[in-house]
UniProtKB/TrEMBL annotation:
One of its GO terms (molecular function) is formate dehydrogenase (NAD+) activity. Belongs to the prokaryotic molybdopterin-containing oxidoreductase family. This is Formate dehydrogenase subunit alpha. Coiled coil: none annotated. It comes from the Archaea. It holds the Pfam family Molydop_binding. Residues 759-785 are annotated as: Disordered. Residues 73-130 form the 4Fe-4S Mo/W bis-MGD-type domain. Keywords: 4Fe-4S, Iron, Iron-sulfur, Metal-binding, Oxidoreductase.
Length: 785
């Protein structure tokens, strides 16, 4: 597709949106005066946003609300609590109520005047009537309200009794990638210093753990090597396993604008015809589970045709010969047979990448949520390395992160079973000495073996090796693979404490529930996909009797006899930068003094260091400074279709929902678009099975079963279906499997599940009476992130 032929909807979408928003704002001003700034017309705007803006893209409505009288309205600049793009905006509040948000381009360098639908509209959950505002304890299978003293004492009693009888490693702790860096830091300290175990993990295990595993052992850091500049200005993009337009709309806007304005090449490889394919120079439909195959095919073609960067390989890498030998079997014919990529498409993509002056390799969970996810990352890292497209301002690797703080809280801060903060291995005696000394511990008391990953915690609990859990800000019942298995595990635990903002599906199983503050009631920092550490600021006072996560953890530690005496998250960050070299120059005061809200990109080695816009300019973060290529030769996913289960299910997200719906299920606007689960099915497959649009389908895998409503669409291939992962009823994780796991990362295989389908005998349980085709603008909100 030439540049002139690409859909010219961006400026039309912006212009249309802004014109209508201004008109609505004018009408609402007459009615509401100073009472509510954004919320009165928020859902009117959301009602037309799917059609007014291409692929759900939302732009700032700052101009639309600019004429309002903003006196007596409190304005707080903060960082968005949804995905990890790192968008910032002003939050407008009055009398403890969140009225809305508006981007302030002077303090929003990553997103400028833009936000996505959730960043703009999805914040009323904070004031939801069912917020947890008081601790709960369970008696005779019923919850009752309790004082903080009683609830905390019950948690200490529950954890300590298991530790005394079975040892510290019989406990599993789960931190939250939604919480701040400071919250997560004290949580890992609590696990190691207070409980005495490395059994601490977080939801990163369920998403990008394979990315971290693969990149850290290849190039040094398990993070994006680039900054925003590359996403805006590179000459070439390879995007795979990511519906960027829907999962990360602000990043998608930057990519599409570069494609349209500068004729950047865009290559999209995905099992589903996602919307980004409309802008691509080449869209290649991949058979689910065979990413390693087509990436190795690209590498083989580049090497065989002398398109690789020999000088870069010789000077800056090791392992090339072994990789070159491994990829020999991935011929164009083999790639077409297994992955479904025609030879001419493989050839075009390989030559485009190799001949580009710069290239960014972008992916999300479609590449990593596999039983060989780490190998997929080895392969794409090898592709970047053999072409020399890494270590430059406009070239590198860019995994897009899905949770607001999964980069920082989920990894950098060390709530991990194998790493202290800053990716310092727990098995290294010098690291244990360093942290033991800092915590005033006897060095022999610091746990010295790697702990259970969260997926292994659930398997260990099934075997009786984990007796109790403390889960912070994670709805594990829905997010873990195989909901049926997760339910059995949670139900059988001797003790479970949950710390969250709502009584989630997981919290229903708890013995004690502790009410935490939401993002808009918290202070601290988040770290974005591009390694920007940015301030999070409290916009409203904590609701009811809630407490910040870090303060709850500190009060628990005190009951165990440990006095930390942090009075503010800024003091926690001072301890972090003292112990974590990549955060060595990060302080709250310095971030505030920057003034532009953009934060600092780690590594920030000291307070005079400006941060690092892109990694690996001179050397890789390895012991010898070289990138270490690893061969990746696994071909098959863990299961393949057969006569009993002839279809392949893949899973992902929808634009209007966020993870397990804890926040977005309480947003009226979001729920008006996607209140129920559904199953995308190709017209050919629908015809074969006698499925009509809107039918309720019985869907069965080797691991579970569920029902969901059919949406007939050309997005999946024939023989494949797609189901979102957000929902308890009808959601994908009713069908996924808890084993096998990816070897190095222990991540589940969410993206390949063999299933069979049948039209349900009765439509009594049909989620909705009608089901518009997801090929329409309103329904093009699915994501493979």
């Amino acid at each position: 597709m030439s540049n002139n032929e690409r859909p010219d909807t961006e400026k039309e979408g912006v212009a249309g949106f802004m014109a209508r928003a201004k008109e609505m704002a004018s009408e609402q001003t007459k009615e509401t005066a100073n009472k509510r700034v954004v919320r009165p017309f928020e859902h009117k705007v959301s009602g037309f946003m799917g059609n007014a803006i291409s692929e759900g893209r939302l732009f700032s409505i700052a101009d639309a609300v600019g004429d309002y009288q903003l006196n007596k309205i409190d304005v707080t600049d903060t960082t968005c609590e949804y995905c990890a793009v790192g968008c910032r905006f002003d939050v407008l509040t009055k009398d403890g109520k969140v009225l809305g948000t508006r981007p302030n381009h002077e303090k929003s360098p990553i997103n400028g005047i833009s936000t996505c639908v959730k960043g703009k509209f999805a914040h009323s959950y904070v004031n939801s009537d069912d917020r947890l505002t008081q601790p709960l304890v369970k008696e005779a299978d019923e919850f009752r309200e309790a004082t903080w003293d009683e609830a905390l004492d019950r948690v200490v009693e529950g954890l300590d009794s298991i530790r005394e009888e079975h040892g510290a490693d019989a406990l599993g702790l789960v931190a939250s990638s939604k919480a701040t860096n400071e919250d997560n830091y004290v949580m890992q300290r609590f696990a190691r210093e207070v409980i005495g175990t490395n059994n601490i993990d977080n939801c990163n295990r369920l998403c990008h753990a394979a990315t971290v595993s693969g990149l850290s052992s290849t190039v040094g850091f398990g993070a994006a090597s680039i900054g925003v500049e590359a996403l805006e200005e590179t000459d070439c993009y390879l995007i795979t396993g990511s519906n960027t337009t829907e999962a990360h709309p602000v990043i998608a806007t930057k990519i599409k604008q570069n494609v349209k304005d500068n004729d950047a090449e865009l290559l999209v490889f995905d099992p589903r015809k996602i919307q980004m394919a409309e802008y691509a120079d080449q869209f290649s439909r991949v058979e689910p589970g065979y990413d390693n195959t087509w990436i190795n095919g690209l590498i083989r073609y580049i090497i065989d045709n002398d398109l690789h960067d020999e000088e870069f390989i010789e000077e800056r890498t090791t392992g090339f010969e072994q990789v070159a030998e491994t990829v020999e079997k991935f011929t164009p014919e083999f790639v077409e047979e297994k992955a479904g990529i025609p030879p001419e498409e493989l050839k075009h993509a390989a030559e485009t990448i190799a001949n580009a002056d710069s290239c960014v390799f972008c992916w999300t969970l479609g590449l990593v949520e596999h039983s060989h996810g780490t190998e997929n990352i080895y392969a794409i890292a090898n592709l970047a390395l053999i072409t020399g497209h890494i270590g430059e301002p406009k070239s590198g690797v860019s995994p897009f992160r899905g949770q607001n703080n999964v980069q920082g809280g989920g990894g950098d801060m060390g709530p991990l079973p194998n790493n202290f903060p800053g990716y310092q291995p727990v098995t290294d005696p010098e690291n244990r000495k360093k942290f033991a000394d800092a915590y005033d511990m006897d060095r022999g008391e610091m746990p010295d073996k790697e702990g259970f990953r969260i997926t292994d915690m659930f398997l260990a609990a099934e075997q009786g090796d984990i007796k109790g859990m403390f889960i912070q800000g994670e709805n594990s019942l829905i997010s873990e693979p195989n909901i049926g298995h997760a339910r059995e595990v949670l139900d059988e635990l001797d003790f479970l404490a949950v710390q969250d903002i709502f009584l989630t599906d997981t919290a229903e199983f708890a013995d004690v529930v502790l009410p935490a503050t939401s993002s808009l009631e918290s202070n601290g920092t988040y770290t974005s996909s591009t390694r920007h550490v940015q301030l999070v600021k409290r916009a409203i006072d904590p609701i009811g009797n809630t407490k910040p996560d870090w303060k709850i953890t500190q009060e628990l530690a005190k009951r165990f006899g440990y006095d930390w005496n942090f009075s503010h998250p800024s003091e926690i960050m001072e301890e972090i930068n003292d112990l974590t070299p990549i955060y060595g120059g990060v302080t709250h005061e310095r971030l505030e003094a920057l003034g532009d809200g953009g934060g600092l990109q780690w590594p920030v080695w000291d307070e005079d260091h400006p941060g690092t816009p892109y990694l690996y300019e001179e050397q890789f973060q390895t012991t010898d400074g070289l990138a270490h290529m690893h061969p990746a030769d696994t071909v098959e996913p863990s299961e393949t279709p057969d006569e009993a289960y002839p279809l392949v299910m893949t899973s992902g997200r929808v634009l209007y929902q966020y993870h397990t719906g804890t926040m977005t299920f309480r947003e009226e606007g979001d729920m008006s678009y996607s209140s129920k689960s559904f199953v995308e099915i190709h017209p050919d497959t629908a015809k074969e099975y006698g499925v009509s649009n809107g039918d309720t389908l019985d869907i069965t895998s080797r691991h579970g079963e569920t029902q969901s409503m059919a949406e007939i669409t050309h997005r999946p291939s024939p023989g494949e279906i797609f189901i979102p992962m957000h929902y308890l009823d009808g959601g994908a994780n009713n069908l996924t499997k808890e084993t096998p796991l990816d070897g190095p990362s222990r991540s589940p295989e969410y993206k390949v599940t063999d299933v069979r389908i049948a039209v349900a005998e009765s439509d009594a349980d049909t989620p909705d009476s009608t089901a518009p085709s997801s090929d329409s603008d309103e329904q093009s909100a699915k994501s493979d992130d």
